[in-house]
Amino acid sequence: MSNVETIGSLGENESLKRTIARLNLSEHALVGPGDDSAVINAPDGRFVVTTDTLVEDHDFKLSWSTGYDLGWKAVASNIADVAAMGAVPTALVVALTAPSSTQISWLEAFADGLSDACTQLAPGCGVVGGDLAASEKVMISVAAHGSLEGREPVLRSGAQVGDILAVAGTLGRAAAGLALLQSGNTDAIAAYDDWVNLQRRPQPPVAAGVEAALAGATSMLDVSDGLAKDASRIAKASAVTLQIDPLMLQGFEAVIEEAARAIDANPGEWVIGGGEDHSLLATFPSQATLPRAFKAIGLVLPQGPAPVMLGASPLPESGWDSVTG
Amino acid sequence: MSNVETIGSLGENESLKRTIARLNLSEHALVGPGDDSAVINAPDGRFVVTTDTLVEDHDFKLSWSTGYDLGWKAVASNIADVAAMGAVPTALVVALTAPSSTQISWLEAFADGLSDACTQLAPGCGVVGGDLAASEKVMISVAAHGSLEGREPVLRSGAQVGDILAVAGTLGRAAAGLALLQSGNTDAIAAYDDWVNLQRRPQPPVAAGVEAALAGATSMLDVSDGLAKDASRIAKASAVTLQIDPLMLQGFEAVIEEAARAIDANPGEWVIGGGEDHSLLATFPSQATLPRAFKAIGLVLPQGPAPVMLGASPLPESGWDSVTG
C-alpha cells in the first residue's frame, strides 16, 4: 500500500468530485455537472456539436505532455471544430479513461488544463459533464457544443470560384514542436520551446471563427490534419480546386526555419503537411474585407485535375490519418 | 498481407464513410455528419447532454459481445441518461477507438447496432457525428443529447418526504446475464439467454422518462450502477431517506430466480446491487397517478440514519464503481 492517492484508491465518485471542484462553470449551463445530464441554453433554437478523441501513444505520450497539457489540448482541439462552424463554444462534456494507478494530482492538473483552456480560449464555455473509467491507457474524448447566435453555419461545401483562400492562426508550428520532441535533441527542444509548447497546448484562433462568419466566409474548417489534407476537404466538399500561392506560405516557413535547421528538417513540409495547429482555413468572396486574424494564401478555381494546387503543381494529400498514422 | 479489409488497411476516412452510410439520420439534425460539427435543433432554446464510456475488458469483453451488441449498448446506456431528465433523445456523437486490425465488418455491425438502437429505443434520434482512432483496446464514448420540449428537467434533488418511489424497467436481469456469462455454464447461458441478451443489448424504458415528467415526477435517475447505489444518489441529492419495501422487489427476484439457481447465485443481490438494467428510478407525489411503466417500490422518508433502507434495515451502497470495479 502506498500513501499516494490514486483514482483507484479514491474510486470514481470521489475522484470525480475532486475534479469537478476545479472546473470553471459554463455561463450557458442551466443544470451543470452532477445529474444524469446537463441542461444547456441554446438561445437561437439550435446547437452545434462535435467530438474528438485523444489516445495515449497515438495522439500523445505521457512523457511529453502533463495532465495539464492534455486537458488544455482536449479543449483546444474540440472548440476549434466549433469555431470552424462560425459558432461560439458554450459547453463541453469530457470522458476520461486512465489506469487506476493514476495519481489524483494528475487528474487535478488535467482538470486545471480543461478549465484554463476554456477561460483563455473561449471565455464563458465550461465543462458541464463527464465520465471517468479505468483502462490500461489514457484516452480523452470530448464533445464540444456551441451557439451560432442566429447565424447560418459555415460549412466546408460553400467555397465559390473566385473566392479568396485564407488562414487564421499558425501553420507548421505544432509539427515543428512534435518533430523537436521526436528528435530527442534537448538543446533544440530548449531553444525552440515555443513550438514544443504550442504542440502541447494548441492556441486555436477561436474568435476568428465568428469574425469569419460575420465577414461572409463561404466555407471554413479547422486545420487539424495539415493544410494539404484539410484544404482538399474543402475542395472536394465544394467541388472546386484550391490554389495555394507558395509565396504566401513563406512567412509561415520563415518562423520555423531555424528550428528545422537545428534538427535537419524541412520547414515547408511542416507548413503543408503538419497537423494540430488547429488554425482556421476559410474562403471569402473576393470583395469581402478579411478579418484581421486572416491572411490570404490562395484562390478558389474551377474544379481542375487536383483538389489542391501549390502554384502550378498538384499538391498531394499528405497529412495525418488518425487510424493509420 | 491479408485480403480481409480492416480499419487500418482502409484508413480513417474510408472506414468512417462506410460507417456513416449505415447510420440512420437524426430527424433533429440541420447539419449531419461530415462537417467540423453537426447542427441540431433545440426548439425550446435548451438542450440536454450527457456522456458515458464503455471500455474493453472493464465494461465488456469482445468474446461476449458483438460489434452490433456494443453499438446498441452504447446508445442504450446514454439515452437512458437523457430519458432520466424527462427529455426526448435527439442526437448522438460517437467516438470509437479500436485496434487497426479490426475488421471493417465489425465496424459495420457496430454502426448497425447504433442505428437499430436509435430506431427501436428512441425513434427520430440518430448519430450526427463521430470520431475513429486507433488504439490497442476498443473504447466507445458517446455524448447523447435531448429535448425537454418546454418541460422542466427532472433532477435527482427534488424528492419530497411522502413521495412514492417507483421504478420503470427491469431490475437484476442485466446482472443475471453478466453472472451467467461469467459462470461459463453454457447450458445455463443457453437456457436463460433472455437475460444474457439483455446484458448485451439493454432495453431502457426511454418513453417512460417523458411520461414520468408529465406525471409530475419530483426526482429521477437511470439505474446504471445498481438499485442500492443509485437510490442513495437520489437520497443524498434530495436530503431524504428512501425506504424500499422488500415485498415490492419479490416480483423482480422471481423472474430471475431460476437462472440464479442454475448457477448458485442470489437473485436478491442481483436486484439490489446489479447494474446496467438502465431502468428509471423516480419519485412521485403521493397523489400522482403513476405512469403504467412505473411500479411503486417504496416511500420517501425524512432523512434518517441511512440514505436507503430496505424495510427497517439500512441498505449498504453496493453496486458498480467504474474505476474500482
Automatic annotation (TrEMBL), chains A, B:
GO terms for biological process: thiamine biosynthetic process; thiamine diphosphate biosynthetic process. Mg(2+) 3 binds at residues 36, 81, 222. Reaction mechanism of ThiL seems to utilize a direct, inline transfer of the gamma-phosphate of ATP to TMP rather than a phosphorylated enzyme intermediate. The lineage of its organism: Bacteria, Bacillati, Actinomycetota, Actinomycetes, Micrococcales. Keywords: ATP-binding, Kinase, Magnesium, Metal-binding, Nucleotide-binding, Thiamine biosynthesis, Transferase. The keyword Transmembrane does not apply. It comes from Rhodoluna lacicola. It is an enzyme of class 2 (transferase). Belongs to the thiamine-monophosphate kinase family. ATP binds at residues 130-131, 156, 224. Pathway: Cofactor biosynthesis; thiamine diphosphate biosynthesis; thiamine diphosphate from thiamine phosphate: step 1/1. Substrate binds at residues 59, 276, 320. One of its GO terms (molecular function) is magnesium ion binding. Mg(2+) 2 binds at residues 52, 81. Its EC number is 2.7.4.16. Gene3D superfamilies: PurM-like C-terminal domain (3.90.650.10), PurM-like, N-terminal domain (3.30.1330.10). Mg(2+) 1 binds at residues 51-52, 131. Mg(2+) 5 binds at residue 225. Residues 34-146 form the PurM-like N-terminal domain. Pfam families: AIRS (PF00586). Catalyzes the ATP-dependent phosphorylation of thiamine-monophosphate (TMP) to form thiamine-pyrophosphate (TPP), the active form of vitamin B1. It catalyses: thiamine phosphate + ATP = thiamine diphosphate + ADP. Mg(2+) 4 binds at residues 36, 50, 81. This is Thiamine-monophosphate kinase.
